[in-house]
Amino acid sequence: xxxxxxxxxxxxxxxxxxxxxxxxxxxxxxxxxxxxxxxxxxxxxxxxxxxxxxxxxxxxxxxxxxxxxxxxxxxxxxxxxxxxxxxxxxxxxxxxxxxxxxxxxxxxxxxxxxxxxxxxxxxxxxxxxxxxxxxxxxxxxxxxxxxxxxxxxxxxxxxxxxxxxxxxxxxxxxxxxxxxxxxxxxxxxxxxxxxxxxxxxxxxxxxxxxxxxxxxxxxxxxxxxxxxxxxxxxxxxxxxxxxxxxxxxxxxxxxxxxxxxxxxxxxxxxxxxxxxxxxxxxxxxxxxxxxxxxxxxxxxxxxxxxxxxxxxxxxxxxxxxxxxxxxxxxxxxxxxxxxxxxxxxxxxxxxxxxxxxxxxxxxxxxxxxxxxxxxxxxxxxxxxxxxxxxxxxxxxxxxxxxxxxxxxxxxxxxxxxxxxxxxxxxxxxxxxxxxxxxxxxxxxxxxxxxxxxxxxxxxxxxxxxxxxxxxxxxxxxxxxxxxxxxxxxxxxxxxxxxxxxxxxxxxxxxxxxxxxxxxxxxxxxxxxxxxxxxxxxxxxxxxxxxxxxxxxxxxxxxxxxxxxxxxxxxxxxxxxxxxxxxxxxxxxxxxxxxxxxxxxxxxxxxxxxxxxxxxxxxxxxxxxxxxxxxxxxxxxxxxxxxxxxxxxxxxxxxxxxxxxxxxxxxxxxxxxxxxxxxxxxxxxxxxxxxxxxxxxxxxxxxxxxxxxxxxxxxxxxxxxxxxxxxxxxxxxxxxxxxxxxxxxxxxxxxxxxxxxxxxxxxxxxxxxxxxxxxxxxxxxxxxxxxxxxxxxxxxxxxxxxxxxxxxxxxxxxxxxxxxxxxx
Length: 823
Prior knowledge:
- It is a single chain.
- The chain has eight helices and 46 strands.
């Protein structure tokens, strides 16, 4: 049957009271008529039609809808007339606003509609504050017993202030019931039987010994175990001795540390079998050893300085060596130089020549032609190998040490005093007459430096602003494909494999690691001054022609933060006959797979088979707009039909034959429409008929018949709408459909290009999305990576300490200093 829809159109001209009375009488007839007269349209729009779902539809483009207006006193009178639940009025005084009855007709409860800026319920607003003072407030509990009663964990960001009894220096203590008060620690800490408090100090006042780690101390302080002191340990008394007694299988040890870094220890090594006193560093064991008979052994493990440094300011020899064994039957020397070659014609073990420009000491092996000088006019030591003529010296006018290979000209220097700005700790070159390849350690500007002069390529370690520096030269470059300032060669064996993505598990060619991540710090960074297209900051490339760049200027002069191409060659494209298996960008995240935020446009996606494929539900807050190009080449704007239910629809054209027709739904519709929910079918005859009605509708189709047993053979159009199978009771995540979800995202996601953007952060836990930082701190999987240790420059020992005279003279000194000097 058909519903009759009545329209009441109000003309803009003035209507006489009698006409208005007639209109209201007509309306009354409408409302008391048959139930089919179910809709009323009030409109000043001539072409307006009532919405099918509305009992009363008021439409206007120039006027509004007024609710009944009354004062609070009028509303009180209205309450006595049993107003029904949901009645709505506009109150004009005493907090004006829109009120509705949430109670019953007999006991009306008028509630004002509020917004997010107006507190509701039990809270009272005063200025920008709210308060509640008529009882206790419970959080996590329904029967609070205090002003604020929290059942669970309470978190306070900021200071916790308890005013009652507080004073500077007091501590917070509790009684057996958990009640906390402030207490003065100085007046509430009492002495016990053994220790006495004196100001900030305590001392032991008994007459016996104190044991730590044992119950029967044998000294004033008897410690079983280790003693660690971050300051001094003072021992006073008549003997002022420290006794260290190691137990069986343990070495008595004194360890020396600086800033919690152990450096040296003094200990008795192998005390049970062959005891000796050992001085050991944390780098090397047993540098000095003294046994019980006085034998001293020193092992030197260094390479940059001398094993022994002896300074003396006395007018005597810096060192005197005596062998006073009067019973020796063979040889007894203070210093012995042995020459085993008896065929020498000139036997010179040690020679001294100090006349004129001669050398202080000269040595020569005449069999091989090798010779050397000590103390020449141009250097401290000079030596040359006879067969190869390779030569070198120590203490020249320009360097501390130098050496040269005669055959190739390769040379090197230690402590080179070069031209201004070209001083070197270590220097070496390939001996080429012009533009040699050269390098060194310890320059004015770098820790290490090397240069390949045929291309003017150079690199350095330890610059003022970086650890590693590489350069492909300055102006006049002639570069080839594959030239880089720094190249790290990593894996060459296919059998090798890393263990994961962390710094301690991955392997490769170049690695950058920050032990602490601070603002604007990066493990690896690449920067390019984008003067030309097809250039970027960092390039990643796989041998199968997949590449991506960070910071990229494309050939159309468009700048990209990230630009990637999967399987398209090294910039030359890919054949259409090759299989497509590569992906340009892959992102994975436990909260979001990707965050894309553009100031103008958000995302442009293009593909031959599809532009965007979403596996899962799709949510949007804006319009779903379709652009359809017409035959004239112009885009027509179309919008997706939306619904409050998850529906599916189909349509078609049928044919009445003798007033009857059966229509089968297409398989696509029948396969997805819900069989447990009604399917709404709308039929429109195409041509004159008695009207039609539905005889039967199910998930496979419907039957239609003509009214009054008509026998028409006209066509009809039809539309069928039903709920989508499996989505009859659609359950959506509440935080996503909440009105504040988009606001959460805007507050939580960061725009780091703006230094003033302080986003709150986002995290998802227990089925909800929160603004804020992650509650549990992340733990790094790179705990095995330790910070690199900076090397210290060599510091000469205290000269004054080395110059101190021995406590006693050397016994039985038979020769004076002057005699030894003359000899």
